[in-house]
Amino acid sequence: MANKISDETMEYVGILAKLRLSDEEKENAKSDMEKMLDYIDTLNELDTTGVEPMSHVFPVNNVFREDIVENGDGSEDTLANAPLKKEQGFKVPKTIG
Amino acid sequence: MAKQYETVIGLEVHVELATKTKIFCSCSTSFGGAPNTHTCPVCTGMPGSLPVLNKQVVEYAIAIGLAANCEITRMCKFDRKNYFYPDNPQNYQISQLYLPIARNGYVEIETGDTKKKVRIHEMHMEEDAGKLVHDEWDDTSIVDYNRSGVPLVEIVSEPDMRSADEVLAYLEKLRLIIQYLGASDCKLQEGSMRADVNLSVREMGSGKLGTRTEMKNLNSFKAIARAIEGERQRQIELLEEGRAVVQETRRWDDNKEYSYAMRSKEDAQDYRYFPEPDLVPIVIDEAWIEKIKMMQPELRDEKLARYKKEYDIPEYDARIITESKRMADIFEKAAAICNNPKKVSNWLMVETLRLLKESGMEPEGIRFSPENLAKLVKLTDSGDINSSVAKQVFVKMFEENIDPESYVKEHGLSTVSDEGELLAVLEQVIADNPQAAADYKNGKEKALGALVGQTMKAMRGKADPGQVNRRLKELLG
Questions:
Q1: Can you give the residue range of the structural domain that contains A22?
Q2: The dihedral of CA B338, B343, B349, B351: what is its sign?
Q3: Structural class in CATH, domain B419-476
Q4: Is residue A97 in a domain?
Q5: At A13, which CATH number?
Q6: Is residue A8 within 8 angstroms of chain B, CB to CB?
């Protein structure tokens, strides 16, 4: 395997993804991620000089909506699966940013 | 000698666009609805939902780009910016990183007598996040997604500003351009315009940029000015002590007049941007740009220059009037109808500004129509009503946009020019106040004032005081 994921990287990814992993889970995730990186390395073997990066498969442009309100009160559906609710809002642990 | 420092500032300005619907769904953008009522599967990030771009967002963004002298990107795309936060239900924000809609522009600002260009690095379209309301009582936050998906344009300047004055002039310039375009109401206090300040200091004459910090949570012009001064001082103190400025995001606390570190570069987020696969590219051709150019209204600077030529009003007045599109529109229309720009300008500069200030309103909220203001000017020009009645009618007009002509008629406020009626009242007043009449006849000039006052009262203010004065003198002479 060409790429090695260090313990520090694993720690950092955990912070970014807000995941708390056990040592065993970390090892598993590490090997999964290394496999992904290997796959990227395989892709990197291709010479892509002069090839435009592709973000869409279909040659379709300019799909727009007109600026007209069509949706009504969606609060019931939106809140249907909320684990905790308060005053018609989702209740979450205190977050300040 | 103490070292001289220069402050280098760049701004990221977010503007909420004035569309009726959100950027990727048909939910309303109107402000103040009950929590989560303006939501749907798209703006709450439900699996399987698909965003569709609001055309008006692109048109506003192009209009702002053109007004700020930018190059419009002929083929632009959206990207996903990944981060985890409760106000962001998709766990990514749809934004533009690689191909933003506009680039390489500038606006010209004026501070004192100096003019200067502030370059615009780029401008991109993105969606706003939801709102968190903190509940101090049970230590939780409540999330409302009504704002999630409201369209924003982010305008990123180059680090071209050197003082708080320049920053304020730049923001004011952007506000005027965008308000004139009708693309946003740009209210700092209400959050429809938000500015993040990137600031660094360096020794005067140094060509190298210092380490910068980014400051957030600035929601008034005054807070921005104070935050810039505070941060400048903080960085200079660090450098003077031989310490380094850390690149970080800081949150300004305007009450304490100090900024606090929110996150440093070490734990800076890695947003893992990648192209948004759910939205197809936007191709903007020459014809589309031309169409938007054609629809572009006259902007503030052009208007100001034209006012100087066309109207005989002081430059100061012209500046104040053109500081609000609504006010300028009223001025031009009313002046055209009554053909008396000077009087129209006076009503705006004196009574309108006074009443706006008293009621804590912005000029954009003016309710009276130019037609009604023109009618009021005509009524005073023709002498149909005197100036105190006019002021009274104006207050009513300011509050309820009443038609001054019919209001004056209904309330019988027009100046009585009917000599017969006036004469009858004058004779009655003299008869009722023999002492004052006698005093005047005996040379007490002051006594006439009392009689004029009584007459005006009897006529309920509808007489022309000059005329009353003359007539009384004749009768008593």
A1: 7-44
A2: negative
A3: mainly alpha
A4: no
A5: 1.10.20
A6: no
- pLDDT tier, B384 (very low <50, low <70, confident <90, very high otherwise): confident
CB of A20 within 8 Å of any CB in chain B?
no
pLDDT of residue B284: 97
For residue B373, pLDDT beyond 90: yes
Please give the pLDDT value at position B418: 66
DSSP B419-460: HHHHHHHHHHHHHH-HHHHHHHHTT-TTHHHHHHHHHHHHTT
Distance from CA of B210 to the nearest CA of A (A): 26
Q: Is residue A15 part of a domain?
A: yes
**Two structure tokens written together for A7:** 């313990």
Task: List beta partners, residue B107.
Answer: B118
pLDDT at position B100 is: 97
Q: Is residue A76 part of a domain?
A: no
Q: Is the pLDDT of residue A3 over 70?
A: no
Would you call B280 an interface residue with chain A, using a CB distance cutoff of 8 Å?
Answer: yes
Chains A, B: CB pairs < 8 Å: 137
- pLDDT for residue B206: 85
Of B26, B262, B267, the CB nearest to A70: B26
Task: Locate the domains of chain B by residue range.
Answer: 5-288, 298-410, 419-476
Question: What is this structure's pTM?
Answer: 0.81
Contacts of A96 in chain B (CB under 8 A): 132, 134, 141
Q: Is residue A27 part of a domain?
A: yes
Of B54, B56, B280, the CB nearest to A56: B280
The domain total for chain A is 1
Contact (Cβ atoms closer than 8 angstroms) between residue B211 and residue B189: no
Contact by Cβ (8 Å): B235, B252:
no
Strand-pair category, B193-203 with B151-157: unpaired
> With an 8 Å Cβ cutoff, is A40 touching chain B?
no
Output the pLDDT for position B476.
Answer: 82
Q: What integer is the mean pLDDT of B338-348? A: 93
Q: Which residue of B has its CA nearest to A70?
A: B26
Q: What is the pLDDT of residues B272-314, one digit of tens each?
A: 899 999 999 999 999 999 999 999 999 999 999 999 899 988 9
Q: What is residue B467's three-state secondary structure? A: helix
Interchain CB distance below 8 Å, A67 and B55: yes
- Over residues A17-36, the mean pLDDT reads 88
